[in-house]
Amino acid sequence: MDSDVNIDLSQFHEVFFEECSEGMEIMESGLLNLTSDSDPEVINTIFRAAHSIKGGGGTFGFSEISDFTHGMETILDEMRNGKLAVTPRAVELLLAALDCLRDMVQCSKDKKPIDQALVSDLHHQLETFVSGGEESVPEQPVETTVVEDVEEEPDEVAVWHIAFYPHENMFYTGNDPFRLIRELQCLGDLDIAVNHERLPEFEKMDAQGCYLGWDMVLKGNVSLDQINEIFEWVEDDCDLQVTQKNEETAEKKVEQPAEVKVREMDEPKMGRRRTDKPSFSNQESTSIRVGINKVDGLVNLVGELVITQSILSRVCNDLGMERNEKLSECLDQLERNTRDLQEQTMGIRMLPIDFAFQRLPRIVHDLSRSLNKKVELKFSGETTELDKTVLEKIGDPLMHLVRNALDHGIESPGDRVAAGKDEKGLISINAYHQGGNIIIEISDDGAGLSPEKILNKAREKGLVESSDELTEAQIQNLIFRPGFSTAVEISDVSGRGVGMDVVRRNMTDLGGTVDVMSKPGKGSIFTIRLPLTVAILEGQMVSVGDQVFIVPLLSIIESLQVSEKDINAVANKSELYPYRDEYISVIRLRKMFNVQTDDEDEDRTGLLVVIDIGGRRVGLYVDDVVGQQQVVIKSLEQNYQQVPGIAGATVLGDGAVALILDVLGLVQQFQL
Q: Of the chain's two ends, which shows fewer C-beta atoms within 10 Å, N or C?
């Protein structure tokens, strides 16, 4: 029976790729922490992940992935057996091979050709390294006591009798008996006899069932461990008996030893994973894989439900039906249930921020080597959860901030020692919840920011006038201006003045902010403040004429009642208002969006909503503040087109559409 005809393995490919990604993250994390003094379990963990990827690649037809990973697995196996030393050269080679493996998996996923030249080169390096010798553990004199404890490869040709009888459900687990037999053939001379006694009548046959068994004789320089390794992933899905000629039977039973079960729990299973069907297992899964598009659809529907509930409550109030006690109770209950449903639905999209942290150790490892700096990276609050959309968009800003801290902040080992510091710098990343927001702090104990150097560079580039007087906080925030850089030379790390601008732009797109606080010689702290989700916004409703706008509450400092006589016109028709100990620019939303009203008299008392944009305060002049409300964000670009100064739209309780302001875009458009 040909298993390829009976079962379509492509249905498991997506799961294989996802688990490959998880396995490669485990490998990278382990390799970055691998030293000659590491716990042996670190190497074992890396080896198991590589072994799982190799097995999965072989099972699902990705032979190139399987063959390449086998080379990595060989080095790791030699290391854990003490035959190869754990050296920086070995770790760097395995990291390079891991990068190549990641590209191979991505190409296979995208159905694109693999870079064969790169694969062949690294494969050759892996093979050369194993057989090289310069990195091998020096050969030690063999003592009798050591020889007795070490399992040696057999010197003579061994003869093994193997009885392999798969269970009927083996194909359902994604395993292929013929692939296992082919692996046995690679070990030596294999004689095979098929047993079809379990084959049922044609009418009772399951097209995806496995009814055949095999009795085999394997001859070669083969150990029992080599045979067991081939069958270890199908131990629970077959009856297996392995016997060496003139020796006692070594049988693999269905009931596994405790240590094997522990290993399987810790090991990420790739490819040959058990996808149990109800007819074969009574165990229930505690989680399911759901496409993100389905979750997004559910979130959108719940958002519409929230809007409908708000409109229903508004209509009932307008009609005076709130006096109906029973109806009022039902409306209150509907509001509570809707809010709970909304929170539960949004919780489905919440993921730990550790997903965004995972690629940073590799960046620090590679960059510190290229800059000849010693750096320690510490995380805290990795389990803090936030929306998947936010999580995906903070990856690049975090990378820029960490690279900036390493390049500009952390000094060279010699400079640090001269300054009385430890030669190894420290970069710390901490995440935590605060109210309805998430705070991410990226701090370093480096040289800090020099206000004089920043201000001189900004004036040199024309970003500020020579006559402008700025506070220390405003000077430090100049590093987020487009085109700003203090790097002397342009390199692949810094100097083009785009990194920090990208950070602020991305944070603003997410409705958040980023600020910096630094002390020369002591280090810097970059603080990112973000909403937990981009689907719902806490906003302040303001009115301008008959229009209602939403200002993100996160950007607002306070709202003030002001008189026209307190607003002073200056050059270029700009207007300033004396706010506390400084003058802030004023943006009139009426003029900005050309809102027409019956009352065009500007000589009246209005309200000034003071907002903070990267340490710079600006006032939005409005007619009135309506109140605060949690609103469901709708994309204006997807439903209409992008409008400068507008981040999106929402539907209010009365059914009217209100525009959500993009405060940074608004300020940039006003050319402040």
A: C
Q: Distances in Å between the alpha carbon of 51 and those of 102, 107, 132, 187, 453?
A: 15, 20, 23, 18, 53
Q: Which tokens belong to 482?
A: 């487009």
Residue 485 Ramachandran class (φ > 0 left, ψ -120 to 50 alpha, else beta)? beta
At 92, is the secondary structure helix, strand, or coil? helix
- From residue 172, alpha-carbon distances to 14, 196, 280, 281 in Å are 16, 20, 10, 12
Residue 660 near residue 555 (C-beta atoms within 8 A): no
Which residues contact residue 611 at a Cβ distance below 8 angstroms, ignoring those fewer than 6 apart?
Answer: 551, 555, 556, 557, 617, 618, 619, 620, 663
Residues in a beta bridge with 660: 550, 648
User: What is the reported pTM?
Assistant: 0.57
Q: How far apart are CA 113 and CA 321, in angstroms?
A: 67
Where do the DSSP E strands lie in 197-343? 213-220, 238-244, 249-252
Residue pair 391/431 in contact (Cβ under 8 Å)? The answer is no
Angle between helices 224-231 and 177-185 (to 10 degrees): 160
Give me the helix-helix angle, 395-404 and 360-371, nearest 10°: 30
Q: By the 8 A CB rule, do 392 and 399 touch?
A: no
Mean pLDDT of 494-520: 74
CB 69 within 8 A of CB 101: yes
Contact 507, 555 (CB under 8 A): no
- Say whether 518 sits in a helix, a strand or coil: strand
**In this structure, what token pair is assigned to residue 123?**
């494969």
Spatial separation of the C-alpha atoms in residues 653 and 309, rounded to whole Å: 8
35 Cβ contact partners less than 8 Å away, ≥ 6 residues apart: 86
**DSSP label at 572?**
G
Euclidean distance between CA atoms 240 and 78, whole angstroms: 28
| Distance between CA atoms of residues 547 and 658, nearest Å | 7
pLDDT tens, residue by residue, 566-606: 888 876 667 889 888 888 889 988 888 888 766 555 556 78
Q: Is pLDDT above 80 for 422? A: yes
What is the Cα–Cα distance from 10 to 60, expressed in whole angstroms? 7
Q: Which helix (H) or strand (E) holds 523?
A: strand 523-531
CB 211 within 8 A of CB 199: yes
pLDDT tens track for 258-275: 333 323 333 333 333 333
Q: Are 16 and 270 in contact (CB under 8 A)?
A: yes
Closest CA to 134 of 189, 183, 69, 89: 89
Q: Return the structure tokens found at 56.
A: 């999965």
Q: Where are the beta strands (DSSP E) in 121-274?
A: 158-166, 189-195, 213-220, 238-244, 249-252
Q: Which two tokens stand for residue 571?
A: 């050059």
CB atoms within 10 A of CB 506: 19
Which residue from 440, 479, 439, 438 is spatially nearest to 457, judged by alpha carbons? 479
Length of the chain, please? Answer: 672
Amino acid at 579: Y
pLDDT for 650 equals: 85
Whether the Cβ atoms of residue 545 and residue 555 lie closer than 8 Å to each other: no
CA 454 to chain centre: 33
Compute the distance between CA of residue 68 and CA of residue 84 in angstroms, rounded to an integer. Answer: 19
Interacting residues of 648 by C-beta distance below 8 A, sequence separation 6+: 633, 634, 635, 636, 659, 660
In which element (H, E) is residue 146 found?
Answer: helix 144-149
In degrees, to the nearest 5, what angle opens at C-alpha 627 toward C-alphas 626 and 630?
Answer: 130
